[in-house]
Every structure is written in C-alpha cells, then in structure tokens.
Amino acid sequence: MPSSSLLTLHNQHACFGGTVGYYSHFSSQCQCEMRFSVFIPPQAQNGPVPVLYYLSGLTCTEENFTAKAGAQGYAAEQGLMLVAPDTSPRGEAIPDEADAWDFGLGAGFYVNATQPPWSRHYRMYSYVVVELPELIAANFAVQPDRQGIFGHSMGGHGALVCGLRNPHLFKSISAFAPIAAPSQCPWGQKAFSGYLGEDKTLWNTYDASHLVKTHAQANRPILIDQGNADPFLAEGQLLPEVFEAACQEAGQPLTLRMQPGYDHGYYFIATFVADHLRHHGAILNA
C-alpha cells in the first residue's frame, strides 16, 4: 500500500498474485489532479522490485493498457511493477480542443508545452520523467535504479523520447507502433505547432528520429513492434523506417519487427506484450 496521504486509492483488485490499483494525486507539474494505475507484482511482498512505465496513445487513459493488454501475468513472471499514467491533464479548468481527438484532452504528446493556453498544465514530459518516478519511489517498493519505459503510438513516441533523453533514469526502452518521426507526420506537426510553436529546433528535442542521432547508446537495445496492416502506417503517421535509418546511422541497436496482418489496436499489443515484458525484464533484472 502507498505510504503517502497525497495519493488517493480509488479501487484495487487482486491480480496474478499481486494487485492492480488505480490512484490519483495533485500534480505540481500539471497543476491538476492526475491519475495512474499500478500493478504490484507478488515479488514486492519480499522487497523492492524494478519498475516499468507504460505510456498510452491518443484518446486513452490510465485504464486502457491496464485492462486490455494482458500484461500483468508477464510482469509477475518478470517481477516488474507496471505504472501507467493518464495521457493528458483533465478537469474543468484545463484547456481542451473539443473538436479534435488528436490534440488537447487525451493527447498530451508527452511534451512540455510552451504555448498558451497549454503551457500551464500540459507538462507531460516533466510529469513522466520527474514527478511520477519520484512519487512512485516515495510510495511503492521499487528499485529507482532499475526503471524502464515503453508505450504505444503517441505513447511509443513518448517512451522513445523520454528514454533517449534520460538514459540515467530509464535503462530499457520499447514501443508498439510509435509515432517515430513526429516532425514529419501530420499528427506530430499538429501537436508540436500547437504545444511548442513554430521553433523546429524545439520540435527536434521531442522527435526520436532526431534525438537518436545524439543520444544513441550501444549497450541499450530498443525493441519496436509494428503491424503491417496498421492503417496509420499506410497514412504516413508512424514512419518507423525513418527511425530505423536514424538508428543505423547513429549505431543505436534496434530490433524493428514488422508483424504481418496486425493493426494498431490492443489485440496487436496483447499478442506481443510478453516479448516486451521479457525484453525489459532481461535488462532490469540483470
């Protein structure tokens, strides 16, 4: 159980010998209530365990991955705590784009916005790399020196960016169908223009295909799964080939697996999530 009164536990469920809990707290970074889920594996009853953060995609909350991916059994197998935050600030006082599903509510893009009205609350990058790990370390039995990160779509973008920029914090990285070159695709260009303005040098600090050129680490392999029947791949929103070329140029070890017949949804994630948990477990438990 968490030790801090700053956390509110909304509900908790027994799961694979551990528990799944849904929590909320007031975020100093986002200046609003933020929510997240935590799977505590059974190994945590005997001492601190590694922790793996999952970042969800557009329109999702902390519940989608937790309920749909079937990851908890594999996390229990590896002795990993799973933490899944919400995808954006929410609340009556929070700015939103009512007519768009790919910007605003549920679409924080894991950046620190610089443009009003988004800059006050939309600080998902610092929430993920600063506030949430500190909160988890203060309240749960984790090993802060053994943390990994992965995600899907927009969250895959977030995982690559947060992981590449913070190798001291995240020792392992993987992604499902990430937005791998956001500066070159419509989703990313819309989000970056709205949150960051038109300074393309600032965009590059949140673009994995740019970051890997200066942040490659030969001893930290990245795993990406991408369905070849993904409609967003055909639309040019994901661009894994751009990231792959950048990794090859920079010497960043990458396993990019194109999965025949799979689309962009949670059936795809559930099919390959065991491989991702084992990828992280091999590194974090080493």
Please estimate the helix content: 25-40%
Query: How many beta-strand elements?
Result: 9
Order of helices and strands: EEEEHHEHEHEHHHEHHEH
* Largest sheet data: 9 strands, mixed
Report the span from N to C terminus: 27 Å
Which structural class should the secondary elements be placed in? alpha/beta
Strand content: 15-25%
The average pLDDT score comes to: 97
Which stretches are poorly predicted, pLDDT < 50 over at least 5 residues? none
Rg calculated over all Cα atoms = 17 Å
> What's the shape?
globular
Number of helices: 10
Write out the strand line-up for the largest beta sheet, numbering strands in chain order: 1-2-3-5-4-6-7-8-9
Report on this model:
It is a single chain. Helix content is about 35%, strand content about 25%. The protein has about 290 residues and is an alpha/beta fold. Helix 4 runs parallel beside helix 7 and helix 7 runs parallel beside helix 9. The mean pLDDT is about 95. The protein contains 10 helices and 9 strands. The longest helix is centred in the C-terminal third of the chain and has 19 residues. Strands 1-2-3-5-4-6-7-8-9 form a 9-stranded mixed sheet, with helices on both faces. A hairpin with a 2-residue loop joins strand 1 and strand 2.
